[in-house]
Amino acid sequence: MSQENVEIARQGYEALNRDGVDGALQFLDREIEFVPIPDGLPDAEHFHGHDGVRTWFKKIGEVFVILGWEPREYIDAGDQLVVEVTIRGRFKATDIPGQLAYYQVWTIRNGRAVHLEAYLDRSQALEAVGLSE
Questions:
Q1: Cβ(75)–Cβ(131) under 8 Å?
Q2: Residue range 40-61: mean pLDDT, rounded
Q3: CA gap 92, 24 in Å, rounded
Q4: Is position 133 within any domain?
Q5: Quick check: 33 and 115 in contact, CB under 8 A?
Q6: Domain count, the chain
Q7: Which of 3, 30, 52, 54 could form a disulfide with 47 if both were Cys (CB 3.0 to 4.6 A apart)?
Q8: Could you list the residue range(s) of the whole structural domain that residue 96 is in?
């Protein structure tokens, strides 16, 4: 089951890079709860469902042009998965390139992510799934 979850996440990032948010939605439950990096946007909030995920992408797209997502490590935690991800892009206002490495915790049920939560700190992400360094 856990290798299956790694494959679901891997395919999700591939679809996101290839087809954008609509490509990735097939790997997310219709009722997904998406919790982005705290304070990652001025009006940080939790997002619910496919429309919520689209709203987050729209908001982030107002300030940052995303050029790609690069998953670097997958850490199995049963029905959860920690993925170290680097997001690359450029800031719209300045055209300056930027990148951010962070951690996403995927909770997967019935072949789809039902909860995605982002952390800047590896130890917090691991703690969220009951693991430690």
A1: yes
A2: 85
A3: 23
A4: no
A5: yes
A6: 1
A7: 52
A8: 2-128
Alpha-carbon distances, residue 61 vs 21, 31, 43, 49, 130 (angstroms)? 11, 22, 14, 18, 33
**What is the DSSP pairing of strand 47-48 with strand 64-77?**
unpaired
Q: Output Rg (C-alpha) for the chain, integer angstroms.
A: 14
Residue 79 CA to chain centroid, in angstroms? 16
pTM above 0.85, yes or no: yes
* Token pair for 104: 């996403």
Which DSSP helix (H) or strand (E) runs through 69? strand 64-77
DSSP 78-102: TTEEEEEEEEEEEETTT--EEEEEE
Nearest-angstrom CA–CA distance, 50 and 32: 7
**Residue 30 class from Cβ within 10 Å (0-12 exposed, 13-18 middle, 19+ buried)?**
exposed
pLDDT digits (tens, 9 = 90+) for 7-50: 999 999 999 999 999 999 999 999 999 999 876 655 667 899 99
pLDDT in tens, 119-133: 999 999 999 999 987
Classified as helix, coil or strand, 23 is helix
